[in-house]
Specification:
Number of strands: 4
Helix content: 25-40%
Largest sheet: 4 strands, mixed
CATH topology: GIY-YIG endonuclease
Protein name: Putative endonuclease
Strand content: 15-25%
Shape: globular
Distance between the termini: 18 Å
Number of helices: 4
Radius of gyration: 14 Å
Keywords: Endonuclease, Hydrolase, Nuclease
GO molecular function: endonuclease activity
CATH architecture: 3-Layer(aba) Sandwich
Organism: Sphingobacterium yanglingense
CATH superfamily: GIY-YIG endonuclease
Strand order of the largest sheet: 2-1-3-4
Number of domains: 1
Length: 113
């Protein structure tokens, strides 16, 4: 069964937060790191994934992504701080993804949709 993951990424200064969708969190994290290093200019350089929600269906994941996209910055910050108060990178090499408190498995959300 495929995993459908919604994540929130941020830049080193926590100035920008952005929600996104992926099926491979490690590949997405590597992609963010690569573009943060290669990017020049005024675009935000997202390099950390600080919040993740897992869904069993694509439709429920897309609904949640749309919901998170409409959140204000303060709402996103509250969500992140609730599960990851220090805004640590969930995908860092020393982190066990399955046991990280910021990984919120959203089975109840997926069942409700």
């Amino acid at each position: 069964m495929k995993k459908h993951l919604i994540y929130i990424a941020t830049d080193p200064n926590r100035a920008y937060v952005e929600a996104g969708y992926t099926q491979d969190l490690i590949a997405q994290s590597s992609n963010l790191q690569f573009h943060a290093i290669r990017s020049t200019g005024t675009f935000p350089k997202f390099n950390r994934i600080v919040h993740v929600e897992e869904f069993t269906s694509f439709d429920s994941a897309q609904k949640r992504l749309i919901e998170l996209s409409h959140f204000t910055r303060m709402q996103k910050e509250r969500l992140i701080r609730k599960h990851n108060p220090n805004w640590l990178n969930i995908t860092s090499p020393g982190t066990a993804l399955n046991s990280h408190p910021a990984l919120r498995v959203a089975h109840s959300l997926g069942a409700a949709c």
